[in-house]
Amino acid sequence: MDTSALEKWGPELAHWASEYLNGLRERPVRAQTAPGDIASQIPASPPNEPEEFAALFSDFENLIMPGITHWQHPRFFAYFPANSSPPSVLAEWITATLAAQCMLWQTSPAATELETCMLGWLRQMIGLPEGFHGVIQDSASTATLSAILVAREKALSWTGNTDGLAGQPACRIYCSDQVHSSIDKACWIAGIGQNNLVKLPTQGPLKSLDPAALESAIKADKAAGHLPAGVIVCIGATGTGGSDDIGAAIDVAHSHGLYVHVDAAWAGSAMVCPEFRHLMAGSERADSFVFNPHKWLFTNFDCTAHFIRDPDSLVKTLGIRPSFLVTQGRDGIINYSEWSVPLGRRFRALKLWFVIRSYGVERMQQMIRNHVRWAEDIAARINAEPDFEIVTQPMLSLFSFRYRRAGVDDLDGLNSRLLDAINDDGRIYLTQTQAEGHYVIRFQVGQTHTTEEDVALAFDVITELARGL
Ligand SMILES: *Cc1c(COP(=O)(O)O)cnc(C)c1O
Questions:
Q1: Where a domain ends, among 49, 69, 89?
Q2: Does 432 lie in the same domain as 397?
Q3: Is 86 inside any structural domain?
Q4: Measured from the CB, is residue 139 less than 6 Å from ligand 1?
Q5: What CATH number should be reported for the domain holding residue 164?
Q6: Do 463 and 397 fall into the same domain?
Q7: Which residues have CB under 8 Å from 197's CB, separation 6+?
Q8: The sheet that has 398-403: what strands, in order across it?
Q9: Each residue's pLDDT tens digit, 57-70
Q10: Where are the beta strands (DSSP E) in 187-343?
Q11: At what angle do helices 181-189 and 140-155 cross, to 10 degrees?
Q12: Is the C-beta atom of 141 inside 6 A of ligand 1?
């Protein structure tokens, strides 16, 4: 295949993409295939002879599409959204065409400089003060891993990378019991270990980390000869949206010289609306802050915004300069690979530039406000039904509920059956979590193309299928 194939197939794919997106409401949201259905149709060995793109594309439509769960479906209310939007898709096409590795400034100066500029825009959009420097990571998991590595290195006086962790005191990381599993995994990978991740109880309706518990855990650990290193606080935890009092946690952490990282992976996008920023109060004193435009800011995965107060400490932790990466004679430039775990990096700032410019901040605020309002509306309607209950109140656009049919004792089983019925039906897609000791069904609104009617239809589907069980 030569480059002329792009001229021939580009317009065809553009047509396919717009038909696909416009026709999504006709498809079941979650793939309806059984395990192995797709794999069994793929030849066991690769072809020796070249094949025409027409054959590849037709196989894609026939074999692959049935096994796709439609994340861009306007009635995707599961997990969290993984947004996309036309300007973002167009930018991805350009990025794929350029296929530049943007690890060093000189490997594409425009990519580095646009990244710096876009993180400056995003910083202002969410109301973080000047003094935070930004980098795009591939995921919030990686940003949090980087933060935990910096916390570890600071606590060990920068000896962890050189000497390893054997013989060192145990570094301790603190968080609430609501945080995302990526914090656990980061502690595994950083060599800190699960047992040195101290999960503390929460308090209040927002399930916030108890600062008194944090204080006594740090003191007890010091007395035991451990090395308290960092605190991970959270805005909008994954299960039901638990959110810490960031300022209170930072008061305690900083009084002991600990590093503080804020995980706002999902909820951070809502901070473009000033009326929600009370949730992040105190973040201006954090050491780092992460959120995912690839979740709720209309930008394709992968695009994680990672803000750091002191990039030197990050570069001291992750920067490595083998001779082939040394760039001669240029001062004051940023080589972003020294700010991240992987060396290679895609040109991800372009899609942010396209998305922010093509919507404008006001329109993005409006879309997020709508999502939050529609979530509150459907939660109120569900709450008004005598055989349903809201288990966790809306936190921005996320809440959880369960069905309580009179005379049924096993409500967990009932709700698990309801969830299966909903997802087999296909008109909407929801997922479950544990809350208040119960199996509950989560509901979040955040898809780029969702309308108020889509949310209203979800209410009909849920109540109809529940009562038909
Ligand atoms: C989604 C999520 C993550 C993980 O995000 P990735 O970018 O997939 O690594 C971490 N923390 C919270 C609170 C999340 O909602």
A1: 69
A2: yes
A3: no
A4: yes
A5: 3.40.640.10
A6: yes
A7: 172, 173, 175, 183, 184, 187
A8: 388-395, 398-403, 438-444, 431-435
A9: 999 999 999 999 99
A10: 197-200, 202-203, 208-209, 227-234, 259-263, 288-291, 304-308
A11: 50
A12: yes
What is the span of the domain harbouring residue 339? Answer: 101-346
Mean pLDDT of 236-264: 96
55/145 same-domain check: no
Distance 286 CA to ligand 1 centre (A): 18
- Please report whether residue 84 resides in a domain: no
* Residue ID of nearest Cα to ligand 1 atom 8: 139
- Same structural domain for residues 201 and 334? yes
- Tell me, yes or no, whether 218 and 323 share the same domain: yes
In a domain, 82, yes or no: no
Q: Atom 13 (ligand 1): residue with closest C-alpha?
A: 237
Domain boundary residue among 45, 69, 93? 69
How far apart are the C-alpha atoms of 262 and 265, rounded to whole Å?
9
- The CB of 182 under 6 Å from ligand 1? The reply is yes
Q: The whole model's pTM is what?
A: 0.96
Look-up: residue for tokens 């979800």?
A: 458
Residue 127 falls inside a structural domain: yes
Atom number, ligand 1, closest to the C-alpha of residue 266: 15
Query: What are 86-126's pLDDT values in tens digits?
Result: 999 999 999 999 999 999 999 999 999 999 999 999 999 99
CB atoms within 10 A of CB 226: 18
For tokens 């509950």, what's the residue?
440
| Ligand 1 atom 2: residue of nearest CA | 265
How much is the average pLDDT of 52-58?
Answer: 96
Q: How far apart are CA 366 and CA 134, in angstroms?
A: 25
Give me the number of domains the chain comprises.
3
Helix (H) or strand (E) holding 4: helix 4-22
191 and 132 inside one domain: yes
Mutate to test the pocket of ligand 1, among 136, 182, 271, 291 (most ligand atoms within 8 A of CB): 182
Q: Please give the distance of CA 392 from its chain centroid, rounded to a whole number.
A: 21
Cβ(102)–Cβ(111) below 8 Å: yes
Q: Are residues 30 and 167 in the same domain?
A: no
The span from the CA of 313 to the CA of 322, in Å, is 19
Task: Give the distance (Å) from ligand 1 centre to CA of residue 237.
Answer: 9
Nearest alpha-carbon partner for 312 in 281, 288, 290, 285: 288
Q: CATH number of the domain that 22 lies in?
A: 1.20.1340.10
Separation of alpha carbons 356 and 295, rounded Å: 15
CATH code of the domain in which 412 resides: 3.90.1150.10
